[in-house]
């Protein structure tokens, strides 16, 4: 009796773990989704308002340094077959309310160092 009970429990455990890929798990995006094309629109000397128009509001403005903005995006995949988890970072520094430097996982435009015509 105990042996047959043990066999049933073990086979149910094995079958339930074998079917774990049948369970749908959602992807969890968090942060600011930035498109590569939008990041390539950035130019040195842009105002804060222009940067916010192009990229949207930052996820974090440094409380101690109002001239540093942080954009962060993270995607946690629910299922491995939809791809790998990834994250993207973008840190923008302003000097005198003008875009000065960008530290990014994105590739900047070749024209980044060319200011917009005023």
List the helices and strands and how they pair.
Blueprint: H1 2-18, E1 28-31, H2 36-39, H3 48-55, E2 60-61, E3 68-76, E4 86-95, E5 98-104
Antiparallel strand pairs: 1-3, 2-3, 3-4, 4-5
Characterization of this structure:
The protein has 118 residues and is α+β, with helices and mostly antiparallel strands. It has a domain at 27-104: 2-Layer Sandwich (Beta-lactamase Inhibitory Protein, Chain:B, domain 1), CATH 3.30.1450. Helix content is 25%, strand content 27%. It is built from 3 helices and 5 strands; from the N terminus they run αβααββββ. The chain has helices at 2-18, 36-39, 48-55, and strands spanning 28-31, 60-61, 68-76, 86-95, 98-104. Strands 1, 2, 3, 4 and 5 form a 5-stranded antiparallel sheet that branches. The radius of gyration is 24 Å and the shape is rod-shaped. The mean pLDDT is 83. It is found in: Cell outer membrane. Pfam families: BamE. It comes from Alteromonas lipolytica. Keywords: Cell outer membrane, Lipoprotein, Membrane, Palmitate, Signal, Viral envelope protein, Virion.
């Amino acid at each position: 009796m105990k042996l047959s009970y043990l066999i049933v429990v073990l086979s149910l455990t094995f079958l339930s773990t074998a079917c774990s890929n049948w369970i749908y798990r959602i992807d969890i995006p968090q942060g600011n989704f930035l498109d590569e094309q939008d990041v390539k629109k950035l130019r040195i000397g842009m105002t804060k308002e222009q940067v916010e128009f192009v990229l949207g509001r930052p996820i974090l403005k440094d409380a101690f340094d109002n001239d540093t903005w942080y954009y962060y995006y993270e995607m946690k995949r629910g299922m491995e077959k939809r791809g790998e988890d990834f994250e993207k970072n973008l840190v923008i520094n302003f000097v005198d309310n003008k875009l000065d430097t960008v530290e990014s996982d994105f590739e900047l435009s070749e024209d980044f160092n060319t200011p917009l015509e005023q």
